[in-house]
Specification:
Elements lengths: L4 H15 L14 E2 L5 H5 L6 H10 L5 H10 L4 H8 L2 E2 L2 E2 L5 H4 L6 H10 L6 H21 L2 E2 L2 E2 L5 H5 L5 H10 L6 H12 L1 H8 L2 E2 L2
Parallel strand pairs: 1-2, 3-4, 5-6
Length: about 210
């Protein structure tokens, strides 16, 4: 008897639950957005309300430490709050589900005050299976997936799988090797030193946002 794709997906989800294995990704799967800290200039120029001058300034200031920093920059360039929000439908600086401020969450398109409450209520977040279950109660699977793409749960440097590391925007196979080579990680300074050998201080700082030493 042939199983449908839906049946196979359900079986996989049940197996994950039974075995206690978390889903691989620790950064929400992109659906409509790219990481504003690494998006190419040409791609940014095609996004809502972007001029050559705004894009050049944005690239010069990267990496932004938070979405609120990017928002301050865009508003300072003359964009309205609504125009900035339209841009966030295409590019964003991911928020940490476990530390995001209300101001950060409210910049997530479609989140609103309700998600400020719900994101905080169900923390600490450990997996996206947990996120899908809890947030899905309120907005359904499709909207939950759209919200997830704006977020991340810190990737554990010392125990992360290859798939966990690859979920970090722009990480790639090289960072899989380097993250694993220097285990056990003990300090931020160690991370900045070792990873900085390969990608430079700005990119190392960007990657550091997505990880935690466990």
């Amino acid at each position: 008897m042939k199983l449908s794709l839906a049946s196979l997906a359900l079986a996989g989800a049940l197996l994950t639950t039974v075995l206690g294995m978390p889903p691989a990704a620790q950064v929400g799967k992109p659906m409509t957005i790219v990481d504003a800290n690494i998006a190419p200039e040409k791609e940014l120029l095609g996004m809502p309300h972007m001029s050559a001058a705004i894009v050049k300034g944005l690239i010069d200031k990267r990496p932004f430490a938070s979405i609120t920093d990017l928002n301050a920059y865009l508003l300072g360039q003359g964009l309205t709050a609504q125009q900035a929000m339209e841009f966030y439908g295409r590019a964003f600086v991911h928020i940490n589900l476990n530390t995001a401020t209300p101001e950060e969450i409210l910049l997530v398109p479609g989140a609103g005050k309700r998600m400020v409450r719900e994101f905080a209520e169900y923390g600490p977040w450990k997996t996206y299976a947990q996120f899908d279950k809890e947030i899905g109660k309120y907005v359904g699977a499709e909207q939950t997936a759209k919200l997830a793409q704006y977020t991340f749960i810190p990737v554990k440097l010392n125990t992360a799988t290859d798939a966990d590391i690859l979920s970090i925007p722009g990480a790639g196979n090289r960072m899989v090797r380097e993250f694993k080579e220097y285990r056990p990680w003990k300090t931020r300074e160690q991370f900045m030193k070792e990873i900085g050998k390969y990608v430079g201080p700005k990119e190392t700082e960007r990657l550091w946002r997505f990880v935690v030493i466990d």
